[in-house]
Amino acid sequence: SPAADDDDDDLDLFGDETEEDKKAAEEREAAKKSAKKKESGKSSVLMDVKPWDDETDMKQLEEAVRSVEMPGLLWGASKLVAVGYGIKKLQIMLTIVDDLVSVDTLIEEYLTVEPRNEYIQSCDIVAFNKI
Description:
- There is one protein chain.
- This protein is an alpha+beta fold.
- The chain is built from four helices and four strands.
- The protein has helices at 2-10, 19-39, 58-66, 103-111; strands at residues 42-51, 73-84, 87-97, 120-130.
- It has a four-stranded antiparallel beta sheet with strand order 2-3-1-4, covered by helices on one side.
- It is elongated, with a radius of gyration of 27 Å.
C-alpha cells in the first residue's frame, strides 16, 4: 500500500544524521558542559595552619580558624600534626565554592590578620582538588 511506503521513507536504516540532528546534539552537549561547569565549581582544600610556638593554645587556634564564616566556605575534618620541638600544626580540610571563595583572600584577609594572627603564624595549602 502507498501508506506503508511513506513510513519506510521516514525511517533511515543507515543512521545518517541530518544537519538538524547534528545541531541538536551539539546544543545538548554544550548545555551539558555549561551545566557541569556551574555544578562542579567546588574545590576541596587541605591546609596547614601553623602556630607561633609550642605555647600557642591549639584549641583556640582551631576555634579562631573555624570562626571564619563566608558564603561558599565549609570547614571539614582537622587534626594536629607534630612538626618538631613540641610544636604542632593544625591540618584542616575545607570545601569551597570557587566563584565565592578565594583561598588567597581567605588566608590573607581573614586568617593571618588580627585578631586571629595572635594564634596563627602562617597558612599553607597542602592540597587543592577540584570536585
